[in-house]
Amino acid sequence: MANIFFTADLHFGHKNILLFENRCRCDKETLETRPFKDVSEMDNYIIQRWNSTVDKTDTVFIAGDLSFYDKEKTTNVVQRLKGTKILIKGNHDTKSNQWYRDVGIKEVSGYPIIVNEWFAIQHEPPTFYNEHCPYFYIYGHVHNCEMYQTYTKRSCCVCVERHDYTPVLFDDIKSMIAKA
User: Fold this and answer.
1) What CATH number should be reported for the domain whose range is 4-179?
2) pLDDT confidence of residue 144
3) Domain segments of the chain as ranges
4) Which has fewest Cβ within 10 Å: 46, 56, 114, 167?
5) Mean pLDDT of 106-133
6) What is the DSSP pairing of strand 59-62 with strand 136-139?
């Protein structure tokens, strides 16, 4: 049986993400949330973690910020990733929807996607929600920012830094909701 996964903020080929994420400060300590010596090591680790979890029949929703590479290199990376890929564009996904389809993404959306009538997948966290809001939000964008919890009763942040660079299984998100 095929599974559904979620991830965000892969940032393939983005050299500066190594600098940005390794400057995070937390209680006067510097956290290394992208502890890679270079982009190649980061890319290969993310691909390895993805492929150790995702099967070729699975579907992965990417909640934004896929790649900083050109078309040829992005195609190479996407072809190395198992499963069917669906992209909800993030602030760094500036190419046309067709460009992303050309590199191997099956579906592309510039807007949030609703899955199973209740789960809203988008790049940025919701700006407002309360107990009466009809959706559970799955998002990225905030990387390892302490202001946002990884799981709440109404949301889940699927940034790669929070899940050891591994896509999150939909059933695991549902289990978290059942325990909340």
Assistant:
1) 3.60.21.10
2) 82
3) 4-179
4) 56
5) 89
6) unpaired
